[in-house]
Amino acid sequence: MSAYIITASGVLTAATPVAVSPPDHVEEVRNKRTHLLPHITEYREGAARKVPIIPASTFRGVLRHAVTGLAFTEQVSRGGGAFTVNDYVNTAQGGVVQRKEEGEDKPLDFSGAEAVRGKNPIMGLFGNFSDKMPSRLLMRHASLEDPEAIFTVAAQVRTDPVERDADLRKMFTREDLDAFSTQMETRRQLVRIEERAERIQSRLDRISQGKEELGAEKVAELKQELKALTEKQGELSKTAGGSVNLQQITPRAQAIAQNATLRHGFTLNGVTVTEAALAVLAYATWVSAGARLGAMRRSGYGQLDGFYDLDARPASGVARLAPPVRIGRMEWSAAEGVLRVQSEAGGLLVEIEAELARILKDGVERWSLRAQ
Predict the structure, then answer these.
(1) Residue 135: how many CA atoms within 13 Å on its side-chain side?
(2) Whole-angstrom Cα distance, residue 372 to residue 354?
(3) Are residues 288 and 355 in the same domain?
(4) Of the four, 71, 123, 196, 300, which is 20 to 30 A from 254 by CA?
């Protein structure tokens, strides 16, 4: 079975702002929390610069989940029967690493991995923990061309369901709506009090840890204010209509500005034509759902337009040392939701497109998506 090394290099454009903030990328300044874009150091024009990125893991995650969801729903819709949660997790996330028994470890079994690869191309492409299958999709970070093309999304208060959808009001009586409105205003007050109390407590903690100095009289004033806020919280809670806070404040967050461009690419390392077709299918599925990633997608954030130029060479033998050959381009517009593939005449991408058509026709049915 022939295998290939396929390299994709291209440019992504933020069709809308994009916010990607891993859990450990948080900054607190004067008690204000901001979710930060991750950065890497790149050498540009002879100097090291910190550049905002969309992490490679973000792309891998959205692509893997997109194509896995497609494969599972297709098999079920064609009478494939129900799957377990573990079946889905095994393919969508590569299984779960079990804690090894003391003195034991699972031996590396290339034949076993190849068998899984043949039955489940998603595992073959993205890798699998349980069977120690490495990923054949080597994804790069997408780095911002202009490191200054970012902005901070201000903290906001989420509105309640009735405010978000005015048509709902037709379902309720005026008395009902007035009572609910009063509860919402009480909850807004609670939110403001909670935020102020958190800031005071955070400052008192820093003072007690020696990270900030403040006179005893000022400390006493802060403690007295905190006590008063706590008492006020108790009073308002009785009339707030429950503990569920529909007025939650969202944190501030850095975002990549609309129309900003990012350098991006990936390599398919030693893939079969079927796995290469699966990579195209993963992108096509993701694009068809709006090409979104990152946070605040429900607010319209995270849409990307883009293109990749594709080069290829054999993955084995002396030919793998030869310069790669251009095989075509993939491009899309998030607004259109369609991935377009332009093949060089008679090139490898023509074979990949034919395999993709076969997969879409009946290939998914043959895959084994059960947990191993």
Answers:
(1) 15
(2) 29
(3) yes
(4) 196
Rounded to an integer, what is the distance from CA 277 to the centroid of its chain?
Answer: 22
- C-alpha torsion sign, points 4, 90, 339, 75: positive
Residues 134 and 32 in one domain: yes
Which of 250, 271, 296 is the C-terminal boundary of a domain? 250
| 162 and 174 Cβ atoms separated by less than 8 Å | no
Q: Reading across the β-sheet that carries 150-153, which strands appear in turn?
A: 26-29, 32-35, 252-256, 150-153
Domain annotation covers residue 154: no
Write the single-letter amino acid at 247: Q
**Helices 216-237 + 174-208 axis angle, to 10:** 160
Is 203 found in the same domain as 85?
A: no
Round to whole Å and give the CA distance between 340 and 310.
Answer: 13
Residue 18 and residue 88 in one domain: yes
Tokens of 290: 């709006």
CB contact at 8 A, 72 and 88: yes
Measure the CA–CA gap between 130 and 283, rounded to whole angstroms.
25
Q: Domain range holding 23?
A: 4-148+256-366
Contacts of 276 (CB under 8 A, 6+ apart): 4, 6, 268, 348, 352, 355
Give residue-wise pLDDT tens across range 107-159. 545 555 667 777 888 888 888 766 567 889 999 999 999 999 988 877 655 55
Residue at which a domain ends, from 218, 250, 282: 250
Tell me the C-alpha to C-alpha distance, in Å, between residue 94 and each of 63, 86, 244.
Answer: 13, 10, 36
Would you give the end-to-end CA distance of the chain in angstroms? 24
Give this prediction's pTM. Answer: 0.73
Domain contains 371: no
Residue 81 lies in a domain: yes
pLDDT of residue 228: 92
- DSSP annotation of 18 reads B
313 phi, psi to nearest 5 deg: -155, 160
Q: Which residues of the chain have pLDDT under 50?
A: 97-104, 106, 108, 243-244
